[in-house]
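task queued by scheduler; priority normal; single chain, no ligands, no partner chains; default sampling; output format set to structure tokens
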Amino acid sequence: MTPFVNNGFYTVGGKVFINKVEAILESEKTHKPVDFNFHDDSYGRFDWSKEPELTLEELYAVRARELRNTYDHLVLHFSGGTDSLNILETFIKNDILIDELFFRGPLGSAEKNENNISATNFYAECYFQSWPTAQWAKNTHYPNLIITGVDTIDYTFDYFKNPNWFETYKNSCFHGGNAWRCDWDELVPRYKSLADQGKKVVHILGLEKPILHMQDNQYYVRFLDKYRENHLGQRITNSELPLFVEPFYWAESTGPLVCKQAHTIKNVLKNNKLSLDNIQKNRDRGFHDWIASVIYNRTLPIRFKTNKPDWQRNEQDSFFFKDQHTEHFKNYKIGIEHFEKLIPEKWKHQHLLKPINSHTTLLDLLGVWSKSYCIGA
């Protein structure tokens, strides 16, 4: 089942698709382009050229209250990084209740060594950053806060015990180790129980920082579908329970928030005579930290962080590819070979079309940009 919240979709010649692969195949058949609709109606009605009068902190608070007033049980997916840390701090500063902090991933693959900050040790952040910060929040602000951590390694291996997994797979993100990124009520039965009681459980994701570009000396902001595909996705199970997934920053209602962020970044670039191209030519940890320093007024510390994983190289899920003689790997490769034959070459990142090694995924699709919105010179 698709999440009930509109988090973007594709159109091809008037037909609507949630599944990117299906949209690509329709495009090949009809020779019409694939368009990525990301809140076109709501964002298209907003005047992006005018910087909102509210401060960023006020707009973050507006968003937090909106979520609190809409849902019964708020689950913040909490890596403890800059995006989710700013969300937690927003709730705390404004005395808004948050019910649960949740982190999941192949936790058992992480080396519990604070000196190992390589991208392959990405999930060590759960031990050294997520958990201690969550425990601090519980001890100091939210005594009834639920802290939930789930190791998804066994779930992932079990999923790929099925050699025909690809026949029902609905996503265009092919990271084997990240298959379980949307079926959280399967990982935590308590979410099912709450839904059965009529409670609306929302999963809040720290998605994402603004993406700016320039054209004819004007600044624009736009949205890339790969962020949606990598972090939201669709279910891989057959559950029929409602699943509410809300990006905190990139939601249908947050045009003013994103606009304010974009203008803030633009103003810093202009006031300091910085080149946008130079700033974001390498979208590495340094780039994300710089953007975060501009748009977040955080005080909570980041105790530990690894190098930023390259989500095309799939470094963070190196555990999945370590032993290529396993059942899960062999079945995964069968499915990837199926998609490689199905998807036209022009949609593939050509530099990744090589045998799988310990870090590299075999198939990664080109991204599709949303409409661009001008924020002025």
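post-processing summary
- Residues 9-376 form one domain.
- The two ends are 43 Å apart (CA to CA).
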